[in-house]
Design a protein that fits this description.
Helices cover 41% and strands 23% of the residues. It has 297 residues and is of the alpha/beta class. The chain folds into three domains: 67 residues, Winged helix-like DNA-binding domain superfamily/Winged helix DNA-binding domain (Arc Repressor Mutant, subunit A); 107 residues, D-Maltodextrin-Binding Protein, domain 2 (3-Layer(aba) Sandwich); 101 residues, D-Maltodextrin-Binding Protein, domain 2, CATH 3.40.190.10. The radius of gyration is 23 Å and the shape is globular.
Length: 297
């Protein structure tokens, strides 16, 4: 079996659907089925359980997929390292983040210094999904609202930022400059869905204040929250820098408890980093050391 066939198996294993995998790989479905059958014959065991036209990765397939993905990941790291040593590219950086609009300034500043560096940005909805991308070696770094406590990982705090309470323009709270969080206990809240780091942090602050927020909107789009608040659907927690995104939206300081979140850069220490990735990491540390709580959008 050649390397391409291992890639075919990986795709089928991930999708557990032969026709969909063939479409993604842009090959004929009978040809893909033949590759998988030949692989199973070489190994001497079935890799999938089959019921009619349905396939499901079995215990042999899961064990083999783990080794195939490790091998493909190491080969990709080797390709990147050799290419960099040979001067075939100026280096690449792969980053995951929940929201992308706040990255534009720092990426622009970095690329003005190193215009040849190639970026690939992955928008990932939850903290667990971003950690899995690092674990699988698919990305170099993740921007996260929470540290990840594991010996092989490093969570570096970049910046601490205050969390504000946004209210609609016609809300009774609009004249306030600050408010104890408990006073918002009866309000309707707009928030990200569970699984987002920011949502988990703000839920804990509500718990500390002594209430469970009544959610009327739970969404996947961080940028949409301020617009929904402005439309009058409810109140929401927003980072301090959101005042640039919603200049006419009342943002109240929260007195008790003091609500803050920390932006972390997370990476896996045994991951191969290109010179570009190492430059980017050093740049981030210096960039956030300058901005602190200043608007960095």
């Amino acid at each position: 079996m050649d390397l391409l066939h291992f890639t075919y198996f990986q795709k089928v294993a991930q999708m557990e659907h032969m026709t969909k995998a063939a479409r993604e790989l842009r090959i004929a479905q009978p040809a893909l089925s033949a590759v998988i059958a030949r692989l199973e014959a070489d190994l001497g065991v079935p890799l999938f359980d089959r019921q009619g036209r349905q396939i499901k990765l079995n215990v042999y397939g899961k064990a083999y997929l783990n080794k195939v993905e490790s091998a493909l990941r190491m080969l990709e790291e080797g390709r990147r390292e050799v290419a960099e040593l040979a001067g075939l590219e100026h280096g690449s950086v792969v980053v995951a983040a929940t929201t992308l609009n706040r990255l534009s300034k720092l990426l622009g500043d970095f690329l003005s210094l190193y215009p040849e560096v190639q970026f690939r940005i992955i928008q990932s909805s939850t903290e667990n999904a971003k950690i899995q991308l690092i674990e699988d070696g698919q990305i170099d770094f993740s921007f996260s609202y929470q540290p990840y406590e594991k010996p092989s990982f490093r969570s570096f705090p970049l910046m601490k930022e205050e969390i504000m309470l946004a209210v609609p323009p016609n809300h009774p709270f609009r004249e306030y400059t600050s408010i104890p969080l408990l006073e918002a206990a009866e309000e309707s809240f707009i928030s990200l869905k569970k699984g987002y780091g920011f949502r988990e942090i703000t839920d804990l602050y509500c718990q500390e204040a002594g209430f469970t927020p009544k959610m009327v909107v739970e969404c996947d789009e961080p940028a949409a929250i301020s617009k929904l608040v402005k439309a009058g659907l409810g109140v929401a927690f927003l980072p301090f820098a959101a005042q640039k995104e919603a200049p006419n939206l009342p943002l109240l300081q929260i007195e008790r408890p003091v609500c803050q979140w920390t932006l972390y850069l997370i990476w896996k220490e045994d991951h191969y980093f290109s010179q570009a990735a190492l430059l980017f990491r050093d740049f981030l540390v210096q960039f956030f050391d300058k901005v602190k709580q200043i608007d960095w959008c």
